[in-house]
Design a protein that fits this description.
Layout: H1 16-67, E1 71-76, E2 81-86, E3 98-101, E4 107-111, E5 131-134, E6 147-151, E7 158-162, E8 169-172
Antiparallel strand pairs: 1-2, 1-5, 2-3, 4-6, 6-7, 7-8
Amino acid sequence: MTLSTGKPNNAPAFTLVELILVMSVILVVISIVSPQLKNFFHGRTVDSEARRLLALTRAGQARAVSEGIPMVLWIDAQHGTYGLEAEPSYEDHDAREQDFALESELKIQVVNAAGQSAVNSTNLVHAGLPQIRFLPDGSYDENSPAALGLSGQTGAPLWVAQSRSHLNYEIRSQPN
């Protein structure tokens, strides 16, 4: 059994004018905030790419030690690609090879230590490209780049650079 009070249902509701007003306020706020959000997400892109590159250096070092063969992290700055593979002189084909491409707005640059060349001729597949060569003892070749810079259209670059102890690479805000 339902009881009826006989009064019409006067539940509070929004009018069309109120809804349009709220939507216009939201639109104005979004148009003001969106440029700042774009710069925020752009900075996150550079940061996440630097972390991925650093993780690849750690993976290369770990694979060199665990498999007992040199690993090569090659960098093709012109095409915006890089990758990790076993040195071709030890294996004809590396089934665990990894290749990555940078986001379209990102650039990578290679900084060599004074008087050193980062180009290693042992890799025939990526001959002429700068390379970090990880040795089976966990160290890296002395001809490896001192730093790899990642930059976007705006903002300061991040650097994946040799640590002060020269045992691995780390992320820095400056190349040295």
